[in-house]
Amino acid sequence: xxxxxxxxxxxxxxxxxxxxxxxxxxxxxxxxxxxxxxxxxxxxxxxxxxxxxxxxxxxxxxxxxxxxxxxxxxxxxxxxxxxxxxxxxxxxxxxxxxxxxxxxxxxxxxxxxxxxxxxxxxxxxxxxxxxxxxxxxxxxxxxxxxxxxxxxxxxxxxxxxxxxxxxxxxxxxxxxxxxxxxxxxxxxxxxxxxxxxxxxxxxxxxxxxxxxxxxxxxxxxxxxxxxxxxxxxxxxxxxxxxxxxxxxxxxxxxxxxxxxxxxxxxxxxxxxxxxxxxxxxxxxxxxxxxxxxxxxxxxxxxxxxxxxxxxxxxxxxxxxxxxxxxxxxxxxxxxxxxxxxxxxxxxxxxxxxxxxxxxxxxxxxxxxxxxxxxxxxxxxx
Length: 381
Prior knowledge:
Layout: E1 4-16, E2 26-38, E3 50-59, E4 63-66, H1 67-71, H2 78-85, E5 89-92, H3 99-114, E6 123-127, H4 138-145, E7 153-156, H5 162-177, E8 181-189, E9 207-217, E10 224-231, E11 239-240, E12 243-247, E13 261-265, E14 269-270, H6 272-294, E15 303-306, H7 311-321, H8 332-335, H9 342-352, E16 361-368, E17 372-379
Helix pairs in contact: 3-4, 6-7
């Protein structure tokens, strides 16, 4: 409920004499003027300069597909997949399930943990490269979640780096825009865009959603310590799912050659070895850069959580940083690469299991198509 209050603000009144026959003089009077203020003003929220992670949640499809299941429909095996990727199972959207449903489930759990109502959400950032509508999935998430105040909601497309870009964006909206509660959702259904005859890519991906509520706080409680983000478009050719043009038959022919094609999304194309080299190079460096910006050292960090793409990449990054393996969060084995969902999904599982505790510090990084990569040093709770 909005509250109003009054303050006495010092006000200055200046009088200037313009009489040509007398010398000019100024009269300066300072008095107090009563001003009415409201706590609903976004400007007043700028008093809070910090932001913290206060709630998390996840949503998963019901269908579980194991490596053994895949070996029955293609030339592969559990040993071939697990030894190269660390993946043994993944969840796949099927039946009447939708990505929106998973995103809303994750969001509701995050709000419940934070004890925040949907009507108190100021902004929804839907980080996804596979929305169920060409124009974005955020509006449907907002509607289904039941946010009656119509907060802004829009998509962020940065593939597997998407959630980190969303988290960093949330901190900027809070610090610079006066927002109080920002819901960051990572959700993807990459299984819809893989060639299920290409064992080099289809075995890697699963579907899912994860959400974090980022909340404004006083500066001394700030929980986002430093971040770093980059894009290198020259590497796009190594991981892409471009638009392909299919011939259109109008029956009676086209007029002036229009329209001649009908667009559709191609299957994901990935140069696995090149992406592996890219991640192994940029992820340790971006984490070091974020640590430097935060003024922290590895000894100050409780956990390492990077995008869950391949266990060999996770191991390579932790080794490059000389970070203890028992402090590395990984749930890749059971979910596969869930793209923008992987980091919040893994964090939610670690928090709810009691592994990650209130006040602990996490260095996290995402990387993927674009090519994009980002990192952030954050505190849970």
